[in-house]
Design brief:
262 residues; mainly beta; four-stranded antiparallel sheet; 53% strand; globular
Length: 262
Amino acid sequence: MLNLWNLSTLELTPITYSEEFFQAQNMRFLQDGKTLIMQPSQGSELEFFDIEEEKSIDTFSLDYPIWMYAVSSDMNTLAVSKSTPMTAEIWDLNTREMLSEYELKGEGASILGFEFAPDSQQVFMYGSESVVWDLNAPDEPLAEREYTVHAVSPDAKKTATVAMPAEDLILSIYNAETGEQIDQFTGWFPRTDIYLQMLFSKDGEMLFVRTNEGVFFVDVVTAEIVHRIEHEYTYEMQLSGDGSLLVTFSQFDITTRLWGIP
């Protein structure tokens, strides 16, 4: 059973679907709001599901388990990772052609996620290395060998990174068009936390930072923590389409929660 919630009315709509998706993981909506991507429990296939027609409309299969993935807003490009060896791949969803491949090096190599720019022309990989692809020249990725988490504002005017050198945490805000650094902050989070994901609010004035201890709401101008969801093992977070709700999923108690944004 696939359950859909209307976030305006909180009404529940159950959809009966194939048994192989009873343990689906890493579900997310595409930009059109009606196409849901589901990753079955076996992990090597992505299913594209039309929630209005209540049917599968496409699949994307590989010969290895998919670890992390993201789809561009124009629905033309897919970024995926595999764990053996730890590798990122960029695929053209229309032609099913692999555009680029990047293997991470060293012990503890990890990929925590991907983030596409709103115009779908760049994709950022964050983890033990930070990698950026210009999709006009995807075979020439740019890499930084430090642990970094990355986010892009919805209006594509700002980018944010959390870099973790040995001595401190550094939050940097950049002008996405010029690459110029707007501001930089240090000493704002406990060094012991592990930083897994960041999202900008719809207006670009707040960052939501997911860690192994919960989710921080951070004012981008002052770098002050204005709110904290103290919940361990938050596995995923996403914003609602209108930006008024933050949705989190916890592996600890297998629960999805909706949070109002101040």
